[in-house]
Each structure stands twice: as structure tokens, then as C-alpha cells.
Amino acid sequence: MSSQEVILHHFDASPFAEKVRVALGIKELSWRSVEIPMVMPKPDLTALTGGYRKTPVMQIGADVFCDTQRIATELNDLGAGPSLFPGDNQGLCAVIAAWSDASLFIPGAGLAMGTNQDLPEAILADRFAFFDFLDRKSLPQQLPSLFARFRAGLQRIEDMLADERSFLLGDTVSWADASCYAPVWMCRSNIAHADELMKNLPLLEAWEQRMKAFGHGRPTVMKASEALKISSSTHSLARPLLDVDAWPKLELDRVVTVTPEDYGAVPVRGRLVRLSQYDVAVARSDERAGEVVVHFPRAGYRVEGL
């Protein structure tokens, strides 16, 4: 058991975890799979993150990576396998991923909650509390609009493939493809009338099969207790960094909070280790996880000094 193994904390039904699982398949990586609960509490996960509860979280030793944006860049920096950002297109991939989250995941989450009659009440209650952009009382009336928004997003993917390219950026698969594939995968498994939504999208359907063929790399199961043992017995490899142009103006080692700006806005408190235009990281201590550094993307997160 290596302290530098890629460990993914996730659950099977998470579309954001599917983004990362597909990326692991693209890069043909071996990794360890820690299954986390679908609903709170998640004590083993939050011991690592300091409160962040979104899925997935990636761990390498005592470094904990939150948000698929940050996970993708770290996976790419590992060097093994094909690049997730071919042609130095990291910026374009990030823009397409953000578009997918807004135009496909947001309405898709509403459709999954509003049309999936098999969801237990415990999951429904947890998700309606978590997704503060959804109103449970008015959701049935919103469904026609959500179907329209999701189908329009699917059409944009079809349009991007209109010249019969293999992938969204051309002949080579990228993070943009993984990001747009995840809500399509969610639709197939969690949204009623998925077949009707996917009608008359032949290029998208062929692309979907190409993405599915990448698989998920080579996962092996790990217990959460093993992952915590690794974090508590190793040291972070994070390099301190403070960009002169980074906002807000803070000094390293300042105690700060880092909070998602959308939903699930639980602040994570720690000492500032990195602050750049691309990432922010804080060091924190936990009696079970030990001394860890928690990493976030800069975009989409509020950083406040205490």
C-alpha cells in the first residue's frame, strides 16, 4: 500500500464522481476506491476535508483535493497516461466544464429528484437541503422547463459534434468530454423519459459510446480507515505559493476559510498554504486524519481571512 496512491472517495451514483472515474479511465490509471455515504453524516470524509461534503474527493497521501476542477488538474499533473488537456487547452476545457455544470447538471439534478420515484425519503430530504437551487414544493411545476433546459444542453453537445469529430475538441479526448459525458450518464440512470430526451441525437449517442468505452481505469477497494491511516502517517507534498496578483490580499499561514460559492457552502478553516489564480490550499489538523493540506480550485470559492 503506497502512500502516494490515488484514492477516490465517492459513491457509485454521483455524476461528478463519474467525471473523475472516466478521467481515470482516459489516463489508464490504477486507483483505490473508498465508498462514502450518499447522505450526511460523512465522518470519515469530513475528517479529511474539514467539512467539505461534496462528492468526489481525491486523496494522495496527506493531500486532499476537493472539486472536480482541482482533481482534474492534479490527475493531469501526475504525468501518466494521455493528457486531459491536449493541445494545452486547459482553459477551454474549464469553460466547457463550467457550462456543462450550469446547463446540464443543474436542470438534470432537478429532473433526477423530480422524476425518479424510487429515491428514498432520506436521500430526497438530504438533497433538497443540499441543493438550495431546488424548491421541493414547486419542483413538479418546474419539470417541463427543466426538461427543456436539459434537452437544449444535449443539443449543444450534438452541435459541437456536427462535423463528425470524435470528441468535443477534435480527434483527441479531453476533460471537456468527461465533463459533458457525466450528465448524459446521469440522465440514462436517474431521469425518467431518458430515451425520449436522447432521441434524434445520433452524434451524441455515438460519442456517448466512445466515452463509455474508456471505462474507469483499474480501481481496487480500500476502507476509509486505511485512507485515514495513510493521511495521518504521511506528509503533504504541497509547495507553498502566494501569487502577487492573487485576491484577496493575504499572507501565507494566515488562518482563513474557503467556502464554495454555489451550493453545499460549508466553510473549511485552515492555515493558508497556497493562493494563486488557479488554486487555494489550506493546512489543517484532525485527530483522525492527521496533518493534511486541503486543495480547492480558485474559481468558484470564497477565501476570507480570520
From TrEMBL:
UniProt KW keywords: Transferase
Residue ranges occupied by any GST N-terminal domain in the UniProt entry: 4-83
InterPro entries found in the cross-reference section: Glutathione-S-Trfase_C-like, Glutathione-S-Trfase_C_sf, Glutathione_S-Trfase_N, GST_Omega/HSP26, Thioredoxin-like_sf
Entry's Gene Ontology molecular function annotations: transferase activity
Domain GST C-terminal: 93-241
CDD domains: GST_N_family
GO cellular component: cytoplasm
Domain of life where this protein originates: Bacteria
Record-linked Gene3D superfamilies: 3.40.30.110
Alphabetized Pfam families for the sequence: GST_C_2 (PF13410), GST_N_3 (PF13417)
Full protein name: Glutathione S-transferase family protein
